# Entry
Amino acid sequence: MIGKNGRKWLLALLVILCALIGEALAEENTHVVILGTSDMHGNIWGWSYQDGKETDNDGMARLYTYIQEVRKENPLTFLVDAGDEIQGTILTDDIASREPDQPHPVIAAMNRMGYDSMTLGNHEFDWGVTDLLFFLRTAEFPILSENIRDAEGNCLTGLGWTILERGGVRIAVIGVTTPGIPRLDGDKEGVDALTFEAASDAVKRAVREIGDRADILMVSAHMGLEAEYDEDGGSDSARKILEENPEIDVLQVGHLHITAAQKEGRVPVGGVRNAGREIARFDLTLDGDKQIIDSEVSIIDMANYEPSEEIRGIPEVRLAHERATEFAEADSEKEDAGDRGALLGSTTARFQPDNEIRGIPEYKVRDTALVELILKIEMENAQADVAATALFRDDSDLKEGDIYSSDLLDIYPYENTLCRMTVTGEELRRYMEWSAGHYNQWTPGDINISFDPDFPGYQYDLFAGVDYEINLSKPKGERIENVMFRGKPLQDDDVLTLAVTSYRYSSVIKAENLAAGKREWESSCSIRDMIADYFSQESPVKPETDNHWRITGIDLSTEDARREELIGYINDGLLDPPNGKSYNLADYESIVQLAEENRKSR
# Structure
């Protein structure tokens, strides 16, 4: 018999043994980090060339700062990219793309950042296949696309998948690209000679070829989780890849510029917004047999990271940035306005009003001529009853006078096409409610309207073809009121045609299940081209508004002198712009005190 003290000693011994066994097992485990970027669209520096300002939350230089931190913490860190990198800014589109015989600054930056692989995106094809291959020729990492084949049946870039090895861990990365490229860039040089295979079929073949040569199977897909074009067959659906390839351990998605961080069964799925604003982080734990025993995915925002001067100092990057800045600064007063592109037409006046409050864009407060113009052009080209559009930058504008093609980059920087679909009144209202979620709910005493920081402004759509009100005294989902269509209240069973961008159709309407209908028409040119054509045909263009929408349910205390005082502090830079949260008169004294303290510290 073991006595009482003996049992205590035995119990203590068991506890110690368990702890030692746990430590031993933990030592056998391996922690792997995979960092995923995509859709950086040429934003190396972290700079808005349209208005000549530093950005504060994006760019490849910021991403590198975070990447280096993670590498110091864990040498078993891999860096992969899911495409759309060599297009998207003045630096790439108006500088680098004109010199395909020179090293591309984005590739130079990716080389320095130490990428392990990159998947082709659709915008890599914007200048044709010959230039694509030339732009990518200096890459010191494999360029992947298993489902794009040349006329001989070979992978366009030579590789569809690759095996990365570090610290005894082998990761097979399979790259697949949206097979919708013939619809997006079918007129570009060399595209018609290529074959675009269903993504899931290509992954299935690659999995067979890889066999048991890797510890981790990852798909880096330049496509969204849900189908964009092939809604029935799913040839461009990353979800179908998972459904038909249960061997996959990690899935990176891209193309749609939306944040994704979720588990699909045991598989972590990650995707990021565009322009280098976020990075996807996959954390995997492997046991002694290199089996995955735990996995998670998280999205890291770049707002808290400083740009890396190492990346900005790369000669190809610095030179391209300087030239892009000079290009953007060109104006009509210069003798040579050719760098501004083609003269399209003119305006009779400026299109956007001044903001009453610094940081609060007027187009989100009231109807403005710039949004009206884009909506009008969309409705006319799509021959639709209703149209929706967003401004990609809060300070976009069209000035008075001559308008050049480069000016349109300011109001419409992307190559989105236009779609038309049929919706019911109920579905349209659901879409409008989703968009109105961009606003914060108004609280009595608030002196300004503010916006949900987790709902990006580029996703906030305004609508034409209907009159409507947004009641900000109500919570999200209950704000859209008094919707009128052709002079009558909109009914749930009304049937309308809706014009939206191809991006919004797939990334929101379908991804959020807002409407059941499918696209019945899509433009062969971009919306930016439509705007250019309008100016060429209709100039001089006059800014016009019809005030068909308004915000209700608020009282901003416009007659209260305290409000005017606080706005003065904001506009003088003594208070931060209240974009993400309103200033409230209930806090008037503490807000004034803060402003005065900031004045003294200047």
Notes: Confidence is low (pLDDT under 50) at residues 19-26, 331-338. The domain at 336-552 is CATH 3.90.780.10 (5'-nucleotidase;  domain 2). The CA atoms of residues 279 and 300 lie 5 Å apart.
